[in-house]
Amino acid sequence: MSTFLTDYRAHVAERAALGIPPLALDAKQVAALIELIKNPPAGEDAFLMDLLTHRVPPGVDDAAKVKASFLAAV
If 0-12 CB within 10 Å is exposed, 13-18 middle and 19+ buried, where does residue 63 land? Predict the structure, then answer.
């Protein structure tokens, strides 16, 4: 499993233990996510797409810019 997925799942668990939702992905995390989407680990396709769809902040954010660049290239 990728370091990104391991780190992200640990982050989600830590935040859940505190009763708060996970933070939105930052630009570096979105770049790592996009690399995984290009060659997804077995069984992670839907999870990766869910992260791209729901965990990237909208608007004028660096993470949104990374996502938009990827989607424009698709």
Answer: buried
Q: Quote the CA–CA distance of 54 and 29 in Å, as a whole number.
A: 13
What's the whole-model pTM score?
0.91
Residue 54's pLDDT band (boundaries 50, 70, 90)?
very high
What domains are there in the chain, each with its CATH number? 3-73 (1.25.40.310)
In three state form, how does the secondary structure of the chain look?
Answer: CCHHHHHHHHHHHHHHHCCCCCCCCCHHHHHHHHHHHHCCCCCCHHHHHHHHHHCCCCCCCHHHHHHHHHHHHC
